[in-house]
Amino acid sequence: MRMWTWEIYIITFIATALIFFSGAAIGYYVSSTVSNPIISQIDNANDNMMNMQLLLNSESKPELFCSMYNSLYPKFDNETWAIGEQLEYLEQGKKAFDPNIKFKYYQLEYRDMLMAKKAVEICNESIENIIYIYSNKDNECPKCAEEGKELWYLRTAYQNSSDKIRIYSFDGSSSNDSTIVGMLKQAYYYTNYPTIIVNDRVNGQFMSEQDIKSQIG
């Protein structure tokens, strides 16, 4: 039987360490390569929202804001939803994820939600706001994946409708790390996951597409 010497142990240790750190470096590179475009998309969408906010604050007459919001509404909706899908893929699928990216996205969602509420107030727009509170902690929300599918069905059903809905998703388990999520928890006092909030009405349980439709309008 061949005996291992200290030299072989050292060589083996160095080789193993190199493989480990190479894998970590590759993982970091892949994560950065995927995350950076998403950060750019979030920043660009936030800039657009801020420009609309400046227009709203500086314009004495709301007609220009209302006209621009009405024309940009589909873009805002598709943009925010698409970014959310990318973040979900990163968080659930790749497991290589920076929570700060998610928190930046929450800022975008919250700004979007406030803008939609302003459009309802001053532009006579009919927009139904739906807030989905989920949890990524193990075993804390066994029906969250199913709830996400129901919301996808709901959004698809309303895409070509004259009735407008906006769906905003937040990880309730991150309330201690995200100021936005902390504000939502104080505002709506939710304790269960999933929680669906339809036009400020809190439902602390799983809801099907039809259940949510029954509360819209």
Summarize the structure.
This protein has helices spanning 6-58, 63-94, 99-123, 144-158, 179-188, 209-215, and strands spanning 127-134, 164-171, 195-198, 201-203. The protein is of the alpha+beta class. The termini are far apart.
Summarize the structure in words.
It is a single chain. The chain is an alpha+beta fold and 217 residues long. The chain is 65% helix and 11% strand. It is built from six helices and four strands, in the order H-H-H-E-H-E-H-E-E-H. It has helices at 6-58, 63-94, 99-123, 144-158, 179-188, 209-215; strands at 127-134, 164-171, 195-198, 201-203. The chain has a four-stranded mixed sheet with strand order 2-1-3-4, sandwiched between helices. The model is unreliable at 8-34 (pLDDT under 50).
Low-confidence stretches: 8-34
Instruction: Write the element-wise H/E pattern from the N-terminal end onward.
Output: HHHEHEHEEH
Strand order in the sheet with the most strands: 2-1-3-4
Total number of strands: 4
Strand content: 5-15%
Major beta sheet, specifics? 4 strands, mixed
Relevant terms:
217 residues; alpha+beta; Glutaredoxin; 65% helix; globular
